[in-house]
Design goal:
Number of helices: 2
Radius of gyration: 15 Å
Helix content: over 70%
Strand content: under 5%
Largest sheet: none
């Protein structure tokens, strides 16, 4: 099952919060950052697709 946009965004927010608080090892932080980048890209892609759909609907 495909993960929802809201779930990805929530995970990204948790990662950002954890990275801001610090406390983890460098390795853990890098892994979290990598996951965060992937989630950010996925969210951006979904938003771009939604924007295209809205633009198409508005034109019709």
């Amino acid at each position: 099952m495909k993960e929802s946009f809201e779930n990805k965004l929530s995970q990204l927010e948790e990662i950002v919060k954890a990275l801001e608080e610090g406390g983890g090892s460098l390795e853990e932080s890098l892994k979290s950052f990598e996951v965060g980048v992937k989630l950010s890209r996925a969210c951006h892609k979904e938003l771009a697709e939604a924007q295209k759909k809205v633009e198409i609907l508005i034109q019709d």
